[in-house]
Every structure is written in structure tokens, then in C-alpha cells.
Specification:
The protein has 552 residues and is α+β, with helices and mostly antiparallel strands. It is built from 16 helices and 19 strands.
Length: 552
């Protein structure tokens, strides 16, 4: 299923709202939009089933209405003069019939459960259609918070369906905002809980058909406000909650605790609260997820990374003015008649972008071959060398061999022409589709010296270079950024980025640490070739003097 620009909104808000609707089985759909597109088909089938259920219910009600109107006419006639009416033997018979056989039919019709077969349909659909899980729901919520933080999105604007000033979807309801806040609460993210519970509260005052109550919102908002360190406001909210629900057990206990804490503050005594006091209010009604925050890494790098994602951390003109574009042949006989378009993105380390190096036909074939094989993208554990999933990489990937199709082999040959390196020891073509807010936080493609087990099983040495093909245009977000050198590469369909991960000496080039910014709107498909050291000895020989920094 192909999504049009108007459907692009489902890559973020609509898909999140869809996930807020369903809570059933399937796994990690949020990690790839290619999988999530099938949720629209699931929703379509469920809507059709619901429409059929409504139609049958309406038929049942229409039958009952017709019978009621018929009986009402007869009863009104009889009520004018009961004696005259019943003196007619036909009327007397019909009245008796209405209250015996006719009424039994009415009772049978009233008791008939027209919805059972439609519920069975839904149960059967779970076996053949994709349904998101609670993990998908939470993953979608975390993704939306990541986008809100990275791109500094205003809560009210997001709730209105606006992303960076562009309207992409319909507004969220108070119930939607409440569920989003509840999901962040489950993760122990009280900052975002407060933001979204406040938005839910604001929207409650304007809605008529509410699915969420003020008491529901206050329960989460008060405790999260306390966890943010604002005890006085938490107490005010708790008192407001108790006015609505006087016997709210948790609120009663928290009120006592908050009052004690305020007394301690007034007496200038040590605030104990979160440092182990036995009477700290504890939420025993909800299980808080204990996984570490996937966003935590070096603060300065994170700030620069997010600035690059927003397009705020530009380079000096003195640096960018040295960059050039040109046609290149790279000493390839074939490229002499079909030179490549090269754009320099950075000089040291040398990063280039090749334009128009993968065709639409090749892209569609690569996507078609990869999609059935998609698995959650993994990272390599630097201690064990084993592959594992990580919250800082949200995407799904598949691997394609050269032998699978002439197009795949041609792409491999093109990479060889582009880089001047042999592909005999390169990894297979990796194809990646990013999920909701899909990203890959700052990382190295090469194995550092302490990662002794990395690539050991391949026996081909370290990753000397990376070629990254962009297979879609992206409306907002999704850039590849290099924080330490302030370089940002914007995805453009048909282009490919190339850089060396290692110095010619074989030591890792730490300035190539890079990241994939969260996808704000659009669908991001990329494919890449990781090229290894073995076989490159004469194609990229060492220099007489080591070219890596002296700290090595």
C-alpha cells in the first residue's frame, strides 16, 4: 500500500491515534512504517465489520419501531372507548394475539444478540490481520515524545495536528492526550506526563462527548507534578481530585504526605521525599517500566545532535566555500562514459554525496525483496559481539545478497565504482525502513579497539567505509548528521553518501560518529553497504606516516 502525501500524517499522529485504539497482539509494528501501513488495512476491515453490525442493529430497531407504532395505533383506538373496541370479537382476538404470540416474537427479537457474529469476526481477524500490541502503543508514544523534544514541538500544536506549522492530521481528543500522558507516565517520564495531562485538561473543557473524566486526569497530573518537585501544586490538584471523588484512596494518602512535606519545608527541615523516606507516596496501581532512558548520552553531543536535526547548527562559510561539485570517473573504465555526479559534504573526514546513483526501478525492487524479511534492526554488543535490539535504534532491516537479483548485483558493482574498493569482503546490502519517529542515535559504524569481538566471525577486519543510499524523499526530519563536524545530510531519493570510517592507518576515525535524526513526517527507506578492510590493502594503502591523530 502506498501512502500519498495526505496520508503521510499517518506516519506520526494518525498512526499514534490508531495505536491508541487497538490493544492486541503482534510485535514491534511501530519500528517500521512499512509494517504499520498494514494497520490501515486492519482498520478498514474493522470499520466495515462495525458498519455491518450497525446496519443489522438498525434493521432490528426498525422492526421494533414498526411493531411499536402498529401497537400504539391499535392501543390509541381502543383507549377511545374500551367497551366499544372489545365488543368487536375481531378486536378482542387481535388484542389477545398481540399479547401472546406477537409479544413472544417481540421478546425473541429484543433478546437476539445481533452482535455475536461480528465479535466472532473480530476474533478471527486477529489470526489473519496485523494488530498492534501494548508495546507498539508505548513505542508510538515514546516516538512522539522524542519528536517533540528533538524538534521543539509545542504540545498544543501537536495536539491540533500541526507539525512545525504544517497541518497534517485532525485534532487529538482529550482522551487521546490522556492516553499519551498515561503512556509516558508508565515510562516514569513525568515531565511529558504533565505536558500532556495539562493538554487533556484544557481539551476537556471544550468537549461534549467525553471518554475521559477530570478525575482521571487529575490523578496522574497531581502525582507527576509532585515527582517534578512541585509539592504545593500537587496538593492543590489532589484537593481538587478529592472534591470530585472524596473516597479516592490514593489521593487521600497522598494529601497527607504532601501536607507533611510542606510543613517540613516551612520549618526549613531537610526534604526527604525521594531519598528513601518510608512514607513517600507510592503508585501501587500502575507498574512503571524500569528500562533506562534511551535518550541519555553525552549532554553536549545530544544538544548538538538535536540542533543539527533542526537545521540550527550550521558551519562557517569559510568551511562550506571550499566544498565542490564535479563529475568523477574514479579510474573506472565504465565511468568514463557514464561519470558520476559528486557533491562534497565535508573535506576532513572526506564525506561525499553521489547523485542519481540508484534508479526508481532498483529502489522498488529492493523494497519489495526486503519487506517480507524485515526484522527489528539490531546493534552489536561491544562486550559480547552479539547482536541485540536497542531503544536508540528504531527501525527494521533485511539483508539482500548479490545473487538474488541482477539489480542487487548491479548496485554492488556501482558501489565498487563509486568507492574504488572491492566488494568481495563487503557485507550484504542492508535495507532499512524507519518506524514512527524512527531514528538511530549517535554511533560509530566501525568497531573501536575495546570491541574485540566485533566482526570476529566475518574474518574480514573492520568496517573501512560506508555507502548509504537514500531511497525516499522525506518531508521533515530524517537527516544523517555528524555532530562533531556539524555536518547534516538531507535525504534525497536516488542519492548515496560515502565516507571512510577508518584512517588509512587502520585506526578508527572518531569524527565519523553519526546519527539518523528522527523522521518527523514521511517514510524513510535507506540501504547501505558496509565495506571491510580485507582486500583493500592495495586499493587504499597505508601512508608512510600514520594519518591518524597522535592520541592513538
Amino acid at each position: 500500500m502506498n501512502l500519498s502525501q495526505s496520508q503521510t500524517m499517518s506516519s506520526l499522529l494518525a498512526l499514534v491515534l490508531l495505536l491508541l485504539t487497538f490493544h492486541t497482539v503482534s510485535t514491534e509494528l511501530f519500528t517500521a512504517l512499512a509494517d504499520m501501513e498494514e494497520l490501515l488495512e486492519t482498520e478498514s476491515v474493522l470499520i466495515a465489520n462495525l458498519d455491518n453490525y450497525i446496519r443489522v442493529q438498525e434493521n432490528k430497531l426498525n422492526q421494533l419501531r414498526r411493531k411499536s407504532a402498529e401497537y400504539q395505533r391499535e392501543h390509541s383506538e381502543a383507549a377511545k372507548d374500551a367497551g366499544v373496541y372489545l365488543s368487536n370479537p375481531v378486536n378482542a382476538f387481535l388484542l389477545t394475539k398481540r399479547l401472546t404470540t406477537d409479544w413472544r416474537e417481540i421478546e425473541n427479537l429484543m433478546s437476539y444478540d445481533v452482535g455475536s457474529e461480528f465479535l466472532v469476526n473480530v476474533t478471527n481477524y486477529r489470526d489473519v490481520l496485523k494488530f498492534p500490541s501494548d508495546e507498539d502503543l508505548n513505542g508510538a508514544a515514546v516516538a512522539l515524545m522524542r519528536l517533540q523534544d528533538t524538534y521543539k514541538l509545542d504540545t498544543a500544536s501537536v495536539a491540533r495536528g500541526e507539525l512545525n506549522g504544517i497541518q497534517y492530521s485532525t485534532e487529538m481528543t482529550a482522551g487521546d492526550c490522556f492516553e499519551l500522558g498515561r503512556q509516558t507516565y508508565l515510562n516514569g517520564d513525568y515531565y511529558h506526563t504533565v505536558l500532556w495531562m495539562r493538554e487533556a485538561m484544557d481539551r476537556l473543557s471544550h468537549e461534549v462527548n467525553r471518554t475521559t473524566t477530570k478525575a482521571d486526569v487529575l490523578e496522574y497530573l497531581a502525582f507527576s507534578t509532585f515527582k517534578q518537585g512541585n509539592v504545593q501544586t500537587a496538593l492543590v490538584m489532589t484537593n481538587e481530585l478529592l472534591e470530585l471523588v472524596p473516597d479516592h484512596e490514593r489521593a487521600v494518602g497522598n494529601k497527607v504526605y504532601y501536607e507533611k512535606e510542606l510543613e517540613k519545608e516551612a520549618q526549613q527541615k531537610a526534604f526527604r521525599g525521594d531519598d528513601g523516606s518510608e512514607d513517600v507516596p507510592v503508585d501501587t496501581t500502575t507498574q512503571i517500566r524500569t528500562e533506562s532512558n534511551p535518550h541519555v548520552y553525552d549532554t553536549s553531543e545530544r544538544k548538538l545532535y538535536e540542533q543539527l536535526c533542526r537545521g540550527e547548527a550550521g558551519r562557517a562559510v569559510a568551511d562550506t566555500s571550499k566544498l565542490k561539485c564535479r563529475y568523477v570517473t574514479n579510474k573506472s573504465a565504465f565511468l568514463k562514459i557514464a561519470p558520476l555526479k559528486l557533491e562534497e559534504a565535508n573535506l576532513k573526514p572526506y564525506i561525499v554525496v553521489y547523485h542519481e546513483v540508484i534508479s526508481d526501478a532498483e529502489i522498488e525492487l529492493v523494497k519489495r525483496l526486503a519487506k517480507p524479511r524485515f526484522r527489528r534492526a539490531t546493534v552489536q554488543n561491544y562486550k559480547t559481539g552479539e547482536l541485540e535490539v536497542a531503544n536508540y535504534r528504531i527501525s527494521k532491516s533485511a539483508w539482500l545478497k548479490d545473487q538474488e537479483h541482477p539489480y542487487i548485483k548491479a548496485i554492488g558493482q556501482r558501489v565498487e565504482d563509486m568507492t574504488g574498493l572491492t566488494m568481495t569482503t563487503a557485507e550484504e546490502l542492508q535495507v532499512v525502513n524507519y518506524g514512527i519517529g524512527g531514528h538511530y542515535e549517535p554511533h560509530f559504524d566501525f568497531a573501536r579497539r575495546e570491541e574485540t569481538n566485533a566482526f570476529k566471525s566475518l574474518g574480514t577486519g573492520n568496517r573501512i567505509a560506508t555507502v548509504l543510499f537514500y531511497m525516499t524523499d522525506i518531508a521533515q526530519g530524517g537527516a544523517t548528521v555528524f555532530p562533531s563536524i556539524r555536518v547534516a545530510l538531507q535525504p534525497k531519493k536516488g542519492t548515496a553518501a560515502f565516507w571512510f570510517n577508518l584512517h588509512a592507518s587502520g585506526q578508527g576515525d572518531y569524527s565519523t560518529r553519526h546519527a539518523a535524526c528522527p523522521v518527523l513526517t514521511g517514510t524513510k527507506w535507506v540501504s547501505n553497504k558496509w565495506i571491510h578492510e580485507r582486500g583493500q590493502e592495495f586499493l587504499r594503502p597505508c601512508e608512510l606516516r600514520p594519518d591518524h591523530p597522535e592520541e592513538f
